[in-house]
Amino acid sequence: MEKKVIVVLLFGLFCVSCAQDEAVAPPTEYPPAPPEEDEPITVMENKSEKKLSETIMTILEHYKQDDPLGIPGAPIPDPMPIPDMKKSFSMARLNMKNVQLYGLKKFRIEHVLADVTEMKVEATLSIDVLTVHGNYTLNTLFSKAAGPFTVKMGKVKVTAIASMEVEVNGTLEAQEMDMDIKFESIDMDFQGLGFFANMFQGIMNSVGSFVFDSIKPFVLAEANTNMRKDINKEIKKFPKKFPNSISPFDQLVCEVRNQVRAKGFDPYLVPDYNNSVGIFDVGLTHTWLYGLSSFHRTRDIKFEFKNKTVHIFLEVGTGAIKGTSNWEVSLVAGMIAKDGKVSFTVDYIRVS
């Protein structure tokens, strides 16, 4: 129990320190002001120590509770805005706007396992309830219903596995992070259905799965980015350097991988696609690609000088690239439609 509290305390300090660093950082166009001449450095150190001790006491007091939720001061977006969603049913079309997700901060740390040999960290979090609020519009050929809606998902489990690699300067850095989220129950409340109430009962299961599948990529993308950034920020403070034997070209590939993640291209949200084929309208929405930053050198690099020309032979490949998308085929301005969800995997891509 004591070891678990220590691990949680360290994890909490990492998150809180990231939030405090971001909160007190001065604008980039202004250099930080130097300390006043009449304020000794020891006074500043005492203030820093006091701030750290207060943070430790806050976290300790928090975890003295019988059932602590979240981490005090952790930079987690709650509520989280979700882009507009739409889905077609037989003779009906559902649109959702102004969607907000609540409850991300109220998590419990169930399990944390660090494998130094495999350079991996596994974690499991649980959330009692995630709540989605927004406004909906349900259209058919003959009438329309609109109003607020609420979707509650119970007993949510989040699993994460992060891999570490040694960088050029000998520091560790989180590279790949696989995450998944599941739930056990779901309750929905769509107000103002009126005439559509009976019809809505028949499609309720489809609506619940659709809402969950739609918010899942955005939640995982946000968590993936923030967690990797926070982990790497704290790892760089670790004084220990690790040996590496990375070639100059592999160093360049590693830097490009980091830039791909930093610019938000992994996971990558593909722009929606819509096209007309005869009397049919075809659309792909919420298309996500995962693994675009997994490229690496697959063969030795060779240089050849021939006929006053330098030739370079190299081969770069990727790991498995996965993707998901919502598809829809419709006619009569979307009133008659068929839709679904597609998942695909490309084992690897190689470019020579």
Word description of this protein:
- The chain has 352 residues and is an alpha+beta fold.
- The chain has three domains: 1-70, no CATH class; 76-245, Bactericidal permeability-increasing protein, domain 1, CATH 3.15.10; 248-351, no CATH class.
- It has four helices and 18 strands.
- A hairpin with a 2-residue loop joins strand 13 and strand 14 (309-313).
- Residues 1-19 form the signal peptide.
- Keywords: Signal.
Order of helices and strands: HHEEEEEEEEHHEEEEEEEEEE
Helical fraction: 25-40%
Ends apart, CA distance between termini: 53 Å
Structural class, from secondary structure content? alpha+beta
| Major sheet details | 8 strands, antiparallel
CATH topology (level 3) name of the largest domain: Bactericidal permeability-increasing protein, domain 1
Indicate the proportion of strand residues. Answer: 35-45%
The level 1 CATH classification of the largest domain is: Alpha Beta
CATH architecture annotation of the largest domain: Super Roll
- CATH superfamily placement of the largest domain: TULIP domain
Q: What is the number of strand segments?
A: 18
Q: Quote the average pLDDT.
A: 70
Signal peptide: 1-19
GO molecular function: lipid binding
Keywords: Signal
Pfam families: JHBP (PF06585)
